[in-house]
Amino acid sequence: MQCPRNVTLGFALALFATTAVFAAPPRQPGATHAFAQNLVNQLHSAHPEFSEIGISAVIPGEGCYGLASTDKTDIGEKCESDDVVPLHTGRASIGTEGKNLDISLPLHDASGNVVGVVGIETAPGGNRAATISNVRAAVRKIEQQIPSKSTLIS
């Protein structure tokens, strides 16, 4: 016995709708986390010498992703290895990106808990140690504004 065409089509549409409801939504690469993006914007405004700034964090049940950045293509991307190191060790990861320093630091909330990572790319200037110290001081200023990890990732 053959089903009428409209019954088969209706079944297919119902199956598709059911699958769409239960499928996980795709990660939105351009979707920003407003609080984190505001921190990036503040930091970049205060320190235009930082050529790139990004904030990443572990989103429960999803993994580590870029939350906010001066490079919009980094938002929603999985964390790079230099971002994961500060999350696990609490220590800076300092490398080079061309002629620039690529500095990833653990990002703390106002209570001192590690809530993410901030990555900053900047020219090394005349004194590498002074440049790193300047980056650390700039990050400490924005950390004071972070009440909790949930606020950062919202």
UniProtKB/TrEMBL annotation:
The keyword Signal applies. Keywords: Signal. It comes from the Bacteria. Residues 1-23 form the signal peptide. InterPro entries: Sensor-like_sf. This is Cache domain-containing protein.
